[in-house]
Amino acid sequence: MIPEPPSARRPLPAALLTFVALAAGGCLSADEYRVQADDEVYAIIAERRAEFVADPEAFTIDPDGESLAWRYMSGEIPLSEPLGPIGLVECIRLSAATDTEVQSRKESLYLTALDLTFARYLFGVQPNAGASATLTGQNEGLEATSAAASVSAGFSRVLGSGAQIVGNVGLSIFRGLLSSEDWDPASSIGFSITQPLLSGFGSAITLEPLTQAERNVVYEVRSFERFRRTFAFSIASDYFRVLQAYDTLENAEANLASLVLLSERNVALAESGRLSDTQVDQARQDRLRAETSVIDSRQTLEGLLDNFKDRLGLPLEVELSLDRTELERVVESGIEDLGHTADEVIELALTRRFDYRNAVDRIQDSERDVMIAADDLRGSLGLDIDVNATSQPGQPLAYDKQGFFWSVGLDLDLPIDRLSERNSYRGALVSLQAAERSAADLAISIELSLRASLRELVSRKQAYEIQKNSVALAERRVDSTTLNFEAGRVETRDLLEARDDLVVARDALTRALVDYHLATLALYRDIEALVVDEDSLRPDDEALEALTENDE
């Protein structure tokens, strides 16, 4: 055999370096890893949210650099430029873009889904690769005596039965720098299986971390969606209170305008001797009181607007106005009976409420914890199978029987000392009881809250009807008193009292309407039937259909 020239065998180190360079080049940058994580997490969140929301909006934890609040803060939009009138849905979006609790909730959901990606990874194929190089010397000087390098690649995977599979291949080279000019290559192949046969056997035990991670994402999505509804309601509550303050100011200004006319008329009548000075002073006194009322109402409105601008994340210097047609639409829709009994509403709530569904599902989690803790009480018996092969020296692709090794073994751990496992099992039983109590307590709390909400809805409806009749009566009284006053049959005080009562009645009617509307929204929120769409905050049609089906 013609010996292979050294020059033909020396490229091996170059090949190893090429492999290492290619492997290193295949690694991602930090920003690419971030994008990869975002893509995977956002896909999980979108899939889970679609189970609970008909048309979920895009989800991201990145701050909105183009939000209206940011544009005001950055100076892109001058603070002197007024904003509005803006509607309720737009206000909800503006607030959600800057609210810190919304951001915290989003980040919590993101991190929970991120944990799931790792749990899925643990039960998938996990590749690995590496390389090493060593230079060795033994003389007193700095002269090296030998050099070695190696590369390896492999994988591992956990199966549903609990078995762990590990495989690897490796290539190494060695050269004695004082005695040889050639590299001596060698390769190896290894494969092993570890299978638990007693404790830890089966998919129910093995896949529990993945199962819990999947369920944690579902819980967090439910909590996030419930928070979104609660958050939207809180913005709606503030929004309609501002509209109520607008209406109160408008009533006060209208009353002041009428009192100015009355005061001027009384002065003219007094100058002609047809009206006493007392009645003139009465009109003036009420006019002054009305001016104070306008000032107070305007101050109240401005305070509510400042607080609302803060909720929207807007600078307080911005002149904000709201879409008052939102209140007009509520007035036009009027008051409608819910048309369902308390038992029907409670039954629907216990079916739809995300927090209650989480509490019930956590009972199942606790039951699985008990099962796993009971499994840990058993002894463990593991089956180990190893197969390894090493190539012939200098021939990395040549294998023979002398380089082949295998082993089969059993590893038994008798359940003699199980104090820690015993305590874990007992603790799991206690946690199960606590989870059952928590779900039962929440069901009772939901029922009590809904019954109180339904009673409040009835009382708000009655208050609205009363105030509606009160306004009609006050308007008729003002009309008749005005006619009698012009005919000289009543005094100024009678007309002033009638107009004061009309202002009070109108303010009370608006307050009663807003109270009823918010009580209705709160009820839909509490039965998980509140939807924010493109135009309004409204009840979920699917929930209303479910209530109707229950009636039938």
Structure notes:
With 552 residues, this protein is α+β, with helices and mostly antiparallel strands. It has three domains: 31-123 and 214-333, no CATH class; 125-206 and 380-413, no CATH class; 340-378 and 416-552, Outer membrane efflux proteins (OEP) (Up-down Bundle). The chain has 15 helices and ten strands. The strands form three sheets. A six-stranded antiparallel beta sheet has the order 2-3-4-5-7-8, with helices on one face. A two-stranded parallel ribbon has the order 1-6. Helix 5 (88-98) packs across helix 8, helix 12 runs antiparallel to helix 13 and helix 13 (419-486) packs antiparallel against helix 14.
> How many structural domains does the protein architecture include?
3
Number of DSSP helical runs: 15
> Which structural category do the helix and sheet elements fall into?
alpha+beta
Shape: elongated
Question: Could you give a short account of the major beta sheet?
Answer: 6 strands, antiparallel
Topology, number of strands? 10
State the helicity in percent bands. Answer: 55-70%
As a percent range, the share of strand residues is 15-25%
Q: Order of strands across the biggest sheet?
A: 2-3-4-5-7-8
pLDDT < 50 stretches:
1-10
* Rg over C-alpha atoms, rounded to the nearest angstrom: 39 Å
Distance between the termini: 95 Å
The succession of helices and strands, N to C, reads HHHHEHHEEEEHHHEHHHEEHHEEH
Seen as an oligomer or otherwise, the chain set is: single chain
What's the mean pLDDT score? 89
Keywords: Cell outer membrane, Membrane, Transmembrane, Transmembrane beta strand, Transport
Family: Belongs to the outer membrane factor (OMF) (TC 1.B.17) family.
Subcellular location: Cell outer membrane
GO molecular function, one term: porin activity
